[in-house]
Amino acid sequence: MEKGHAYFMQLALREAQRSADADEVPVGAIIVKDGTVIGRAHNQTELLKDPTAHAEMIAITQAASAVGDWRLTDTILYVTKEPCPMCAGAIVLARIPLVVFGVADPKRGGAVSVFNILNHPQLNHRPEILQGILEEPCRDMLQNFFRKKRQSQKNDSP
User: Fold this and answer.
1) Which member of 20, 31, 35, 52 has the lowest number of beta carbons within 10 Å of its beta carbon?
2) Which of the 8 DSSP states describes residue 49?
């Protein structure tokens, strides 16, 4: 039985939960080649004190190491939230041919919502985009995280 997009997005959601559990913005990413996961990560910006430690960036680094090449042709990136501009740039540079994401980011999206980096006509690589896979659980995880954050801040204020 072939594993489909929902299966791999579920794995990305598990990674996102690891972010939430560590009080990081809950985003998870999985990179798949020939049906096998070759990169998996979750946001770690707070833990690593690194603004580039987004799930996609870490997963791209793992996948490149796994295949021994910076070109990630014949792979699929699954990510729970639309990539930001930084991550979208890395996706283009890595030559990832398909990006599957759960929920759009209407404030900072780098794929389709705010910036159209993944399909910019002047770039040499334009991946296919598939959005809305497991959109509801991806959205719910983000909304619940930020709701708890706001509540916590409200409770901490004098």
Assistant:
1) 35
2) T
Residue with tokens 């041919």: 97
pTM of the model as a whole: 0.93
Which distant-in-sequence residues (6+ apart) come within 8 Å of 147 by Cβ? none
Q: At what angle do helices 85-94 and 55-67 cross, to 10 degrees?
A: 10
Q: Answer for the pair 61, 93: CB distance below 8 angstroms, yes or no.
A: no
Q: What is the pLDDT of residues 79-135, one digit of tens each?
A: 999 999 999 999 999 999 999 999 999 999 999 999 999 999 999 899 999 999 999
- The secondary structure element, H or E, covering residue 24 is none
Q: Is 79 helix (H, G, I), strand (E, B) or coil?
A: strand
Q: Crossing angle of helices 5-21/135-156, nearest 10°?
A: 10
User: What is the distance between the alpha carbons of residues 102 and 78, in angstroms, rounded to a whole number?
Assistant: 8
Is 82 among the catalytic positions? no
SS3 at position 104: coil
- Angle between helix 55-67 and 5-21 (nearest 10): 120
Q: Of these residues, 2, 56, 82, 135, which one is catalytic?
A: 56
Check the CA dihedral 56-61-66-71 and report its sign: positive
